[in-house]
Structure formats: structure tokens, C-alpha cells
Amino acid sequence: MEEPNDATPFLPERRTLGALREAAMGCRGCHLWRGATQTVFGEGLKRSRVMLVGEQPGDKEDLAGEPFVGPAGRELDRGLESAGIDRVEAYVTNVVKHFKFEERGRRRIHQTPKRFEIEACKPWLAEELRVVKPEAVVLLGATAAKALLGSSFRVTQHRGELIDSELAPLVSATIHPSAILRAPDDEARSRERAAFAEDLRAVAQALRS
Ligand code: SF4
């Protein structure tokens, strides 16, 4: 039987964050639910002014059922703190809600979701955006940025800039915090960390003005 490729049939009638989160737990809109532990829906308050959108949950997030709780999440927290954005005031989510990976021995190695998997999952993010209506959306990494700004968008060329988009009054893109962890040495890591915080600071400043 052909796999489905759309989360839309799984959206609930009531479109509150709570109802959406609950319904997403049973989503079978694409094949990715099969290998993963659980759906990792977005976290945060409906009144959040900032929405941060990553690619997909990682190994730790898949097990915990919460986004950005692993090492990349700690880098995100660090960047937000340095930019003066309270994580409690930010809604954090991903374009894809199930962990995609390949098994190597006992390790589960992240795999970048494909276009059709991203498209299948987009209805959940569209609802999160509609309900939260954030003043600022920050796209973390190339997958999230391309998914929402088009495949020709280059984070390397436009990181930290304010981008004209219908997603929100303020839209920006930067690296995914996991890129900081992949830096080859301490010096490069510090540099990436500072640049990431700087990109988030630009959003915080724009929100204040
Ligand atoms: S990745 Fe998205 S569309 Fe696919 S099963 Fe999970 S929640 Fe549904």
C-alpha cells in the first residue's frame, strides 16, 4: 500500500494548541512515525512573541518528546539568553515532527528530511503559526529556511537579516544550533556561538523597536 504524504487528514476539528498537540501524537501523515519514538510537537505559550523553527527532533528530543532539549537545545538556550530573549517566552518547534535517522550499531544518526516529508508535515507548522501568530519567526538552519522561504534561500548569504515574508512581521534565519556543536575546535565553536547570538540579538532588537 502506498504511504500517505499529508498530515492534513490528522488535523483536529478544534485548532487550539492543546488539541493540535494531542492530534499530532497520532499523525500518520508520512512514514516517519514508524521508526521514531513519538511525535515531538512545538512547545511554548500561545502568547509567545518569538517562534523558533528548527528542522526536526533529534535523538534526545525523540526520547523526551520535547523539542530542543538535547545538546543543540542547550546551545539555543545559551544564544537566547545572550540575546536577551527568554526561552519561556519563545515558542520552539520544527518543520518535521518525527525524528528521521539511520541506525549505525546502537547509535541513531540524524538524516535530513526529504522535501516530500517536509511537505507532508507542514500543516502542523501552519497551524502553530496561525494559533501563536508570533511577531517574529526565526528559522534555524537551511532545512527550515528553505522549507519556508523557498529552495533558493541561502542561510549563509542572508543569516541575521530581516526578511520580507508573510510568515510574520519579523522573519529571520540563522544557523541551526547543532552547527555550533559540529565546529572543528574550541575557537571555531566560540566564533559560531557568538555569531549565532548576534543573529538572535538582531531579532530581539527589532522586537524592541
Ligand atoms: S513527520 Fe509529520 S507528517 Fe510525518 S507522521 Fe510525523 S507528524 Fe505526521
Report on the architecture of this protein.
With 209 residues, the protein is α/β, with parallel strands linked by helices. It contains eight helices and six strands, in the order αβααβββαβααβαα. The strands form two sheets. It has a four-stranded parallel sheet, sandwiched between helices. A hairpin with a 2-residue loop joins β3 and β4. α3 (71-83) packs across α8 (186-208). Iron/sulfur cluster binds at residues 7, 24, 27-30, 32-33, 39, 96-98, 120-121.
List the helices and strands and how they pair.
Layout: H1 17-24, E1 50-54, H2 59-64, H3 71-83, E2 90-94, E3 101-104, E4 107-110, H4 115-132, E5 136-140, H5 142-149, H6 155-158, E6 170-174, H7 178-181, H8 186-208
Parallel strand pairs: 1-2, 1-5, 5-6
Antiparallel strand pairs: 3-4
Helix pairs in contact: 3-8
Bound molecules: iron/sulfur cluster.
Iron/sulfur cluster is lined by residues 7, 24, 27-30, 32-33, 39, 96-98, 120-121.
Please give a handful of descriptors for the protein shown.
binds iron/sulfur cluster; alpha/beta; 13% strand; 8 helices; 209 residues; two-stranded antiparallel ribbon
Strand order across the biggest sheet? 2-1-5-6
Shape: globular
Q: What ions, cofactors and ligands are bound?
A: iron/sulfur cluster
Q: Counting H and I runs of at least 4 residues, what is the number of helices?
A: 8
Please outline the major beta sheet.
Answer: 4 strands, parallel
Estimate the helix proportion, in percent: 40-55%
Secondary-structure element order, N to C: HEHHEEEHEHHEHH
Task: Tell me the total number of β-strands.
Answer: 6
Coarse structural class: alpha/beta
